[in-house]
Amino acid sequence: MYFYVNSNKMFFIFILFFSTLISISSNSWLGCWMGLEINLLSFIPLISNTKNLLNTEAALKYFLTQSIASINFLFSILLKMILFKNFEMNNFLSIMINSSLLMKMGSAPFYFWFPNIMEGLSWMNCFILMTWQKISPMILLSYYMNNNFIMIIMMLNAMIGAISGFNQTSIRKLMAFSSINNLAWLMASMMISENIWLMYFFLYSFLNLILCFMFSMLNIFYINQIMNFNLITIIKMSLMINFFSLGGLPPFLGFFPKWIILNFLMNNNMYIISFIFIMSSLIMLFFYIRIIYLSFLLNFFKLKWFKIKIKNNFFSLINFFSLISMTGLILNTFMFF
């Protein structure tokens, strides 16, 4: 959370938010491309840090991958402007535009850069990359969504996000693969309606914010670090509630949007996609339970001088967020009556 004090960082955050608004409100493809470029150029100063080589490496990797995606996107929209001046577009061109946008948001099969860059970022930058940076590509994707192509991508995202998380000890990489898995749900919600997508994205961002905020405050980056907090039961309980909610376990808030999406898929006879989504969610829950299992059941002997200084405000915030995650589903079910 270091950039809140720095005026330069605040300026780049403002440009980052503003560039997303340019992209999603533009009435031409060139305007959308311009917004994406401003977004890229404003995010790089936020993640680069001269004191940390990992941050600088992540910034360089991010720049290269996003530049390749931008070139593909620009080439595709120029082809569209030359060949198809009206709104009709053939499958090849729509797949090209979709592919460049999928690469921009770190979706399968162009996901290889995403976990590596996440590994070199601070938690707050990870949060921005997992949530805000997906808004522009997702909304642009909805303009010319090739349904058959997107269904294949949805299944790939669900499977790769779930399977690639095995044997990961880094929590940042685990969250990256969780983000890839959630992209499948976001694409499915976009196929239903923009309101469902907005609700799912808001809840996903909210749960991500809680977890990233907790890990940032406690300075946790790897699974074995969680075992050190064997005396703070509130933190363990909050981790359990929010991880289960992110995984979509029924009593919690995160289950509600997944329930709506699965209901739509089943009503439209998309049984294979529904099965893959359910199985991938179960695998993701296994990862989260593994983290919680370690924190609850394995204890370290603590040295007398081992102290964790945490402010009372932090505990009250975490308790409030966890309460929302727990009671959210009960409150949301009243919307059906």
From TrEMBL:
Topology class, membrane: Multi-pass membrane protein
Recorded superkingdom: Eukaryota
Major subcellular site: mitochondrion
EC number(s) reported in the record: 7.1.1.2
Residue ranges crossing the lipid bilayer per the database entry: 12-36, 62-83, 95-114, 149-167, 174-192, 198-222, 229-250, 270-293, 314-336
Gene Ontology annotations of biological process type: mitochondrial electron transport, NADH to ubiquinone
Reactions catalysed according to its record: a ubiquinone + NADH + 5 H(+)(in) = a ubiquinol + NAD(+) + 4 H(+)(out)
Subcellular location(s) per record: Mitochondrion inner membrane
Enzyme class: translocase
Gene Ontology terms, MF aspect: NADH dehydrogenase (ubiquinone) activity
Protein task: Core subunit of the mitochondrial membrane respiratory chain NADH dehydrogenase (Complex I) that is believed to belong to the minimal assembly required for catalysis. Complex I functions in the transfer of electrons from NADH to the respiratory chain. The immediate electron acceptor for the enzyme is believed to be ubiquinone. Core subunit of the mitochondrial membrane respiratory chain NADH dehydrogenase (Complex I) which catalyzes electron transfer from NADH through the respiratory chain, using ubiquinone as an electron acceptor. Essential for the catalytic activity and assembly of complex I.
Similarity-based family: Belongs to the complex I subunit 2 family.
Name of the protein this chain belongs to: NADH-ubiquinone oxidoreductase chain 2
Organism: Pieris napi
